């Protein structure tokens, strides 16, 4: 894992203004961050507000080799009740195989582990074994800013030291920049983004948006190119994918922007 400060480029920061104004209306209507009532009542499973893309030729064209989203960093809570039931709430981006037996995700979540919301990485390597790691607490400067999440499949290339294909996860926010490389690989065939809730009490997050949701059919090669942008992912997902809306959390498309909320219904 590598990490260093990197302010989000000014044009990208300005591109967030319109979506931020729209999400502010949702936040005002929903009354801020409060404990989740009702919560996720699924036993040993999570509740979702996500958009999922897995139909090659319909949701995307060609092989899926990377995925990108730009999302807002918003306040989250996991209070004492949440921690007692080992609950959490997370906003994330995922790249996986078409059957979701292998996947890799990156995002941020509140679970009480570090005393606040933190960036995290999680992967399922073979359908059973799960790798999980809290990367760092959210920087105060990242709050209410946009953060770019990206997951790429890298392939061997003479210009770098990669000797075999593998998956790399990256995030770039207002003042956070993280690269995660576990050195393992799978053939991507699906992607999803949105919010995941585990627990019945004390989990909450303000309204969040996901936009500039793109993909690339071309594997990445330049491992030394630490920084990235939406232009590295020229493919545009078709339509709104398969929505999974457990209510809570709540999800809603407004034009090309996907919003999530926990845990008050949208007005």
Concise description?
By secondary structure, the chain is mainly beta. The chain has helices at residues 10-30, 80-84, and strands at residues 2-3, 47-53, 66-72, 76-78, 88-96, 103-110, 118-124, 130-137, 146-154, 166-172, 177-181, 190-198, 203-216, 235-236, 242-245, 250-254, 257-262.
Task: Pick out its properties.
7-stranded antiparallel sheet; 267 residues; disordered N terminus; 10% helix; 42% strand; mainly beta
Please describe what this structure looks like.
With 267 residues, this protein is mostly beta strands. The protein contains two helices and 17 strands. The strands form two sheets. Strands 1, 3, 4, 9, 10, 11, 13, 14, 16 and 17 form a ten-stranded antiparallel sheet that branches. A seven-stranded antiparallel sheet has the order 8-7-6-5-12-2-15, with no helix packed on it. The longest helix is centred in the N-terminal third of the chain and has 21 residues, at 10-30. The N and C termini lie far apart (41 Å).
Radius of gyration: 17 Å
What can be said about the biggest beta sheet? 10 strands, antiparallel
Order of helices and strands: EHEEEHEEEEEEEEEEEEE
Low-confidence stretches: 1-37
What is the end-to-end distance? 41 Å
Shape: globular
What is the total domain count?
Answer: 1
Which percent range fits the helix content?
under 10%
Give the number of helices.
Answer: 2
**Proportion of beta-strand residues:** 35-45%
User: What's the count of strands?
Assistant: 17
- Tell me the structural class: mainly beta
Mean pLDDT across every amino acid position: 80
């Amino acid at each position: 894992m590598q990490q260093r400060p990197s302010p989000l480029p000014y044009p990208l920061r300005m591109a967030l203004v319109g979506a931020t104004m729209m999400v502010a209306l949702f936040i005002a209507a929903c009354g801020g961050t409060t404990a989740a009532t009702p919560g996720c009542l699924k036993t040993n499973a999570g509740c979702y507000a996500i958009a999922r893309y897995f139909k090659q030729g319909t949701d995307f064209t060609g092989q899926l080799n990377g995925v990108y989203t730009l999302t807002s960093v918003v306040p989250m809570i996991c209070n004492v009740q949440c921690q007692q039931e080992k609950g959490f709430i997370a906003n994330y981006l995922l790249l996986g195989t078409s059957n979701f037996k292998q996947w890799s995700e990156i995002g941020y979540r509140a679970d009480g582990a570090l005393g606040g919301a933190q960036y995290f990485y999680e992967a399922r390597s073979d359908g059973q074994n799960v790798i999980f790691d809290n990367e760092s607490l959210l920087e105060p400067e990242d709050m209410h800013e946009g953060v770019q999440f990206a997951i790429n499949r890298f392939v061997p290339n003479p210009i770098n030291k990669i000797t075999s294909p593998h998956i790399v996860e990256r995030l770039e926010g207002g003042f956070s920049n993280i690269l995660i490389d576990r050195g393992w690989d799978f053939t991507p065939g699906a992607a999803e983004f949105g919010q995941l809730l585990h627990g019945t009490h004390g989990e909450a997050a303000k309204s969040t948006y996901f936009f500039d949701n793109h993909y690339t059919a071309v594997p990445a090669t330049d491992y030394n190119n630490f920084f990235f942008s939406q232009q590295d992912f020229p493919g545009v997902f078709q339509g709104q994918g398969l929505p999974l809306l457990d209510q809570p959390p709540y999800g809603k498309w407004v034009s090309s922007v996907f919003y999530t909320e926990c845990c008050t219904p949208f007005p």
